[in-house]
Amino acid sequence: MDHASGGPQEPQQPDNAQGTPRCYRHPDRETGISCTRCERPICPDCMVSASVGFQCPDCARGTGPGDSGRPTPAATRPRTVAGGSLASDPRLVTKILLGLNIALFIVIHVVPDQTRLLNQLVLLGQWPPKSALVGTGIEPTSGVATGEWYRLVTSMFLHQEIWHIGFNLLSLWWLGGPLEAALGRARFLTLYLLAGLGGGALTYLVASPEEASLGASGAIFGLLAATAVLMRRLNYDMRPVVALVALNLVFTFVWSGIAWQAHIGGLVVGAGVAYAMVHAPRARRSLIQWGTSGAVLLVILVAVAIRTVVLA
Asked: What InterPro entries does this protein's entry cite (predicted)?
């Protein structure tokens, strides 16, 4: 969801049967939140954290109704719900992630030896499996267990089928923009990468080491979980997002060929990190947010290290 531009406007009058207010900057969006200064209704994309409640972007900049228009002091500059800085383009990181996925998709389809490149980038525990090499004196030559930890990252941006990348990137666009606007760029990118790594780590920990996996699904499930956490934080109706999570989980376990470990890992990590992002008390916000992110990364690294020792 993009921010609309322009100066202060008159409050929009409710025009639905229940009289639910609509955001004064996005008249098509219903909302139950109002600016604490001018009392105009605002949607999540327009909410700026204040000492009490939320303000609209105009009031946060000092250009709202009744403001003098003087520059806002640095200590009270507009912040997102999670405490991040407001950006002129709230979808910039989302667009960059989309571009990386598309670029790698194009590369693997134009290189002469596609299979070889895929084998070097997919998430693979160990190949050939050591159990098949007992007594031969030969050691596995590729996989995370042989030191190729980079596969946990490269596999997050790798897709082979057009339907696979299409579904994941549509989901990234729909979920990423609102989350990036609500969290801020740094926090959103941290959430995305940790969810993807969490999905990869659980896959590596549980799945057969010779089974290869790829795709952004772990990160996407993390964004889905984060959306649910954010909606709960804003007291929005949870039924649509709960139904979406349930439907995706059904597909995860019913549709053959899906690495369910990546989906579950991303979902759990995304929910945990997002909860810390949006519920951290203002006085200790940065400590809790980045401390939680660091702790999650440490757990991921320990899980990968334990699995590597087991496979060695």
From this structure: Peptidase_S54_rhomboid_dom, Rhomboid-like_sf, Rhomboid_protease_S54
